[in-house]
Design goal:
This protein is an alpha/beta fold. About 40% of the residues lie in helices and about 20% in strands. The chain has 8 helices and 7 strands; from the N terminus they run ααβαβαββαβαααββ. The protein has a 7-stranded mixed sheet. α5 links the parallel β4 and β5. α2 packs parallel to α3 and α5 packs across α8. It starts with about 30 loop residues before the first helix and ends with a strand. The relative contact order is 0.16.
């Protein structure tokens, strides 16, 4: 935690720069310390997606409703939603199961200049109580939820969403064509190299995350969202194998 009035110390991501024992990726304190640098250098378009979450929230947030950021990590999308909510009677809730993330997120929320209250919960999003929602964000979160639990989570979100409300869902996806998968993966790896990651870092990070982050096709996501109870699903952003979708509940 940083000193009062200052953000927590952020470090450059060097977690996979040296040979390390193979283990699954975890959102622990070591990841929390480098997370802003890691996600900026690893996820193409992240610095575009965050401010657009503010724009989308402004369009769909409703008076007297709840807005949720599920898997809020350090609060980048929470803060974007906060600045997009114009209704003073809205409540904003950020949820993450990593105490290290929530601890740092609290500091960023406190330093932000918006007066809209934010409630942070350290809990599993599969157990989070949802109701009266107008905007919910899953920003690169669903991909870490076990596949067998994804339908149930999205169904609960859809059921909790008011008519006219929306879900913002950002995900790493896979492709039905092996050829396209290879091209998009290669381009993603070149993006990471251009941001200073070595081949060793790329390889070790991929090995650590491949059993934890389970991507699906865009068609899979769209079908599940419609089956869950949303009425319209559209892709508003894509760069390589990273997309962000908007799922809308009809009036």
């Amino acid at each position: 935690m940083g000193k009062s009035g200052q953000p927590p110390e952020q470090k450059t991501d060097r977690l996979f720069a040296t040979e390390r024992r193979p283990e699954d990726f975890r959102f622990d304190a070591s990841v929390a310390r480098v997370f802003p640098d890691m996600i900026r250098r690893s996820v193409p378009g992240y610095t575009t997606i965050i401010p657009m979450i503010e724009v989308i929230t402004e369009q769909y947030a409703q008076a007297g409703s709840h807005c949720y950021d599920l898997g809020c990590s350090l609060g980048a999308s929470t803060l974007a939603m906060r600045h997009g909510i114009s209704h003073r009677d809205c409540t904003l809730v950020g949820v993450d199961n990593s105490s290290a993330m929530i601890e740092r997120c609290e500091h960023y929320i406190a330093l932000d200049d918006s007066s809209l209250p934010v409630t942070l919960r350290c809990e599993d999003i599969l157990e989070t109580e949802l109701s009266n929602a107008s905007v919910t964000t899953l920003n690169f979160t669903l991909q870490f939820v076990p596949p067998e639990h994804r339908t149930g989570l999205l169904t609960r979100i859809a059921e909790a969403t008011r008519p006219g409300g929306a879900l913002i869902l950002s995900e790493k996806i896979r492709f039905g064509s092996d050829e396209e998968q290879d091209i998009q993966t290669r381009l993603h790896h070149e993006f990471k190299r251009a941001n200073g990651y070595s081949d060793l870092e790329i390889s070790q990070k991929r090995s650590a995350i491949e059993q934890v982050l389970i991507p699906e096709t865009l068609a899979d996501h769209k079908k599940r969202l419609l089956d869950a109870g949303f009425d319209r699903v559209l892709v508003w952003y894509q760069c390589f194998n990273f997309v962000s979708m908007l799922a809308i509940k009809a009036h």
